[in-house]
Write a structure and sequence with these properties.
4-stranded antiparallel sheet; elongated; single chain; alpha+beta; Nuclear Transport Factor 2, Chain: A
Length: about 325
């Protein structure tokens, strides 16, 4: 208690050889029964290292209850963002309740970027136009990265990671890449995906460069025919389709994968076509048309389609 009988709480903020700085909360009771808290900041001179009893402050400032509340809110809302530069903070509207805050924390902890974006837009945390602009810029950077990767003769794993992060490039016929890749004990695809119609499809990726070839070294009766490397990749893709169809009526498979399989299709991403002539492009169209449930996409086609989807300049018709 203070000398006037007011409850108070003090704390030494900093003590030097000759001065000490203290903070004190004062609780003021009104006749109405309400209580208000004031904050006092003061600096005192020390004598022999101690503050004399009933010492008057060298300098001081007492905030009334409204000022105290405003100061505490200011510190709570601004100190940490100011300290770290604001890069780790999002300012929320005052109407944003505690339940929504907890939901926001859970969403940010979720690696599903689509759910995060939906939450930000639905709750007006970030304007929809801004979210779309940021997503557009991210996709543009991804296209630049794709083009750089094409010149680096990478193994399959970096490509798998790129497509995992940029499934949008596969087109609107695919809704999402599933977490499960395993078809059965012996067969593991690059991706199992949910198609737009809700059913299961398969995506298989082969490195665009290296020793893998698309066309055979010699013509057959004047026609371009697929190289044995491509034939093997197509056989593997068709094997995956066969194994998926075998599991189509398995409740255990549907529960594990989460999507039903009905006449699955496979997209095989294979090879380059930037240097093809017109006869090779024609042979490619004939080859793709002859496949029932298998589509072969060249890496250059994926890049070209991504550019067109984003309305970016660049060579077309690869």
């Amino acid at each position: 208690m203070s000398q006037k009988g007011l409850p108070y709480l003090t704390e030494v903020l900093k003590k030097k050889t000759r001065v000490t700085t203290e903070a004190a909360f004062w609780k003021i009771r009104h006749k109405s029964g309400n209580e208000e808290i004031s904050l006092r900041l003061a600096r005192y001179a020390l004598v022999d290292g101690r503050k004399p009893p009933n010492a008057a402050p060298k300098a001081g400032l007492t905030l009334d209850p409204d000022e105290t509340a405003a100061m505490l809110a200011f510190l709570e809302n601004n100190y940490e963002p100011f300290r770290v530069g604001g890069q780790r903070w999002i300012a929320l509207d005052k109407d944003f309740g505690s339940e929504q805050v907890e939901q926001l924390k859970a969403v940010f902890a979720n690696p599903d970027r689509r759910k995060l974006v939906e939450f930000l837009i639905e709750n007006n945390i970030v304007p929809e136009d801004l979210v779309r602009s940021l997503d557009y810029q991210r996709r543009c950077r991804a296209v630049d990265e794709f083009e750089l990767m094409l010149n680096q003769d990478l193994k399959e794993q970096p490509w798998q990671q790129w497509f995992q992060s940029n499934s949008w490039v596969l087109g609107s016929e695919f809704v999402r890449i599933l977490d499960e890749r395993r078809i059965d004990v012996e067969n593991i695809s690059d991706y199992l995906v949910q198609a737009y119609d809700g059913f299961l499809d398969v995506i298989e990726i082969k490195r665009p460069e290296g020793t893998l070839k698309f066309w055979a070294d010699s013509l057959d009766h004047g026609n371009y025919v697929e190289h044995s490397d491509l034939t093997k990749a197509m056989a593997q893709a068709n094997r995956y389709l066969y194994e998926v169809e075998r599991e189509a009526n398995s409740d255990k498979f549907v529960r594990r994968v989460g999507v039903r399989a009905v006449k699955p299709r496979c997209v095989l991403i294979y090879g380059r076509s930037h240097d093809w002539n017109e006869d090779q492009k024609e042979a490619y169209r004939i080859l793709n048309a002859s496949q029932q449930n298998l589509s072969i996409l060249r890496f250059d086609y994926v890049l070209d389609r991504a550019r067109r989807m984003l309305n970016l300049p660049g060579p077309h018709g690869s």
